[in-house]
Amino acid sequence: MHYSNATEPADCLTIAGVSYNSRLLVGSGKYRDLAQTREATIAAGADIITVAIRRVNIGQDPHAPSLLDVLPPDQFTILPNSAGCYTAADAVYTLQLARELLGGRQLVKLEVLGDQHTLFPHMPETLKAAEALVRDGFDVMVYCSDDPIQARLLEDIGCVAIMPLASLIGSGMGILNPWNLSLIIEQAKVPVLVDAGVGTASDAAIAMELGCDGVLMNTAIAGAADPLRMAHAMKLAVQAGRQARLAGRMARRFAAAPSSPLTGMLA
Hints:
Blueprint: E1 13-15, E2 18-20, E3 24-27, H1 34-44, E4 48-52, E5 77-81, H2 88-101, E6 107-110, H3 123-135, E7 139-144, H4 148-157, E8 161-164, H5 178-187, E9 193-195, H6 201-210, E10 214-217, H7 219-222, H8 227-247
Parallel strand pairs: 3-4, 3-10, 4-5, 6-7, 7-8, 9-10
Antiparallel strand pairs: 1-2
Helix pairs in contact: 1-8, 2-3, 3-4, 4-5, 6-8
């Protein structure tokens, strides 16, 4: 079989019927300025950029610089999120506002947080918000705990992507519970993307090797000493992890196995 570096259409990330070449999604906060936000997004090769509607201007303030000036919606998919919301009602209102600002775009990322200390998802409120948004015609990608039961409930509601945390938002601790993540991946019929906790390129590669469909990150890139170099590293890590998953790793063994054949040895 001939191997090509070209992206194969059949291996694109597909969410709510739309295909994307990149499996790396990036955030738009914490950068030095809007120019660096654009440069890092391009270095990451990302198609989808998530935007915290309560923190980033995409038209709410017509007198301030807008993210859309540097990441125009005709070139990138702007994914509004409800970061900073602690109730279902606030999250639903925030994403309805985003839909108005973005000309009726339905794809959103739902976040309902439990507290300001851990930023852990509040799952009862998340489920409530997901039900309301799906009823209202939204395509809901949802930040959630790494609980396979909660993930299944969200999928049953009609969410188009499940996004369990790897570890706490902004912690950089990596994937702390790969077993739960594997359980979610095994049962899911919609894309599963790791959201929160990635700290470096190896974390992204591990997520993809486990079978995730994609990875979303912000602080891991924006908080690096060299954000542009890290953005490029993350791009390569996601690609490498995906290829390793498709290739199928060798079986683990409890004994050594020689790399060279034992037959036909020279005397």
